[in-house]
Amino acid sequence: MTLYKTAVIGCGRIGCGFVDDPLRGSLSTHAGAYAAAKRARLVALCDLDISAASECAGGSDVHVYTDYREMLERERPDIVSVCTPPETHERIVCDVARAPGVGAIFCEKPIATMCSAAEHMIRVCAEQNVLLTINHQRRFSPFHQEIGHFVRRERGLGKIQQVVCYYAGGVANTGSHLFDLLRLYLGEVTRARGHASPNSSRRPGDPNVDGCLWFGDVKVAVRACDPEAYAIFEVDILGTLGRLRVLSSGYRAELEMALPSQNFTGIKELGAAARPSLLRPEPNKWIYFGVRHIIECLDSDSVRPLSSGEDGLAALKIITMLKIFEEEK
């Protein structure tokens, strides 16, 4: 079976740096996920700061570079992660897609800062027959795939009545993950309205935005919080048959179903439901799952990407819609 050569451009937190956090571990980085995957071999790291790349390499036989073009020419990787700031994604992704031998690109979110840039990236990758995958991490999780199936296909919660979401840390940075996850659960956004949140994102150029999204006739309230107070990423879905809360940044869920009340005759109340597969905690392996999925896609044309460039563009359009209403005021 093919052993895929891999490389990482950008050795910051998600590229390599989170490995230093004992609560996150190596699988929460692109480099760590490649090192752990049986059919991937990490051959190169690239960063403008050579010391950052060298520190991530840690004295191994992984080669380090400051120029990604030189890296692509010398190493000829099969899979390349792009973990640089979003304003650089268009140029780097298009250059990587045109490099000989590259079969797949694993690009950090958001896909870009402008929809026109994202469209260009998607077009170039298609022309070069290169798989473009966006790291909306929860997409690769069997846990979240099952939640999406339960809510959207099984209609396990019945008709959706209310959805309320909370996030912190910027409408593009964290909001990108949230909006993609909502698409997985509920389908496509038909309308969006946003306004500045009173709670700062603490990220220059990436504000917190409160707003509403409409998935057909389902209205979703989006509320932003200050990340310096605490991290939060939650989705609370109330249907006519029950309630599902996605908690702890998406690592666990709580499910309640409408059951006969113990207190009032003829009335139903929400009570704990037995569905073990939706209640188990999710391990911190999402990027690793993403790497395995990319390899599956390269192995077989019949495997559809779980988080494609088009999915990245759809999340970016939601971000843009929310920010446009704010900028028009």
Describe it for me?
- The protein is an alpha/beta fold and 329 residues long.
- The radius of gyration is 21 Å and the shape is globular.
- It is built from 10 helices and 14 strands.
- It starts with a strand and ends with a helix.
- It folds into 2 domains: 155 residues, Rossmann fold (3-Layer(aba) Sandwich), CATH 3.40.50.720; 140 residues, Dihydrodipicolinate Reductase, domain 2 (2-Layer Sandwich).
- Strand 2, helix 2 and strand 3 form a beta-alpha-beta unit.
- An 8-stranded mixed sheet has the order 8-9-10-7-11-12-13-14.
- The model has no long low-confidence stretch (mean pLDDT 93).
Q: What's the gyration radius in Å? A: 21 Å
Major sheet attributes: 8 strands, mixed
**CATH fold annotation of the largest domain:** Rossmann fold
N-to-C SSE series? EHEHEHEHEHEHEHEEEEEEEHHH
CATH architecture of the largest domain: 3-Layer(aba) Sandwich
Major sheet: arrangement of strands: 8-9-10-7-11-12-13-14
CATH H level, superfamily name of the largest domain:
NAD(P)-binding Rossmann-like Domain
Q: What helical percentage do the residues reach?
A: 25-40%
**CATH class category of the largest domain:** Alpha Beta
Supply the helix-strand structural class. alpha/beta
Instruction: Quote the distance from N terminus to C terminus.
Output: 57 Å
Question: How many structural domains?
Answer: 2
* Number of DSSP helical runs: 10
Q: Count of DSSP E strands?
A: 14
Global morphology: globular
Proportion of residues in extended strands: 25-35%
Instruction: Give the low-confidence spans.
Output: none
Q: What would the average pLDDT be, to the nearest integer?
A: 93
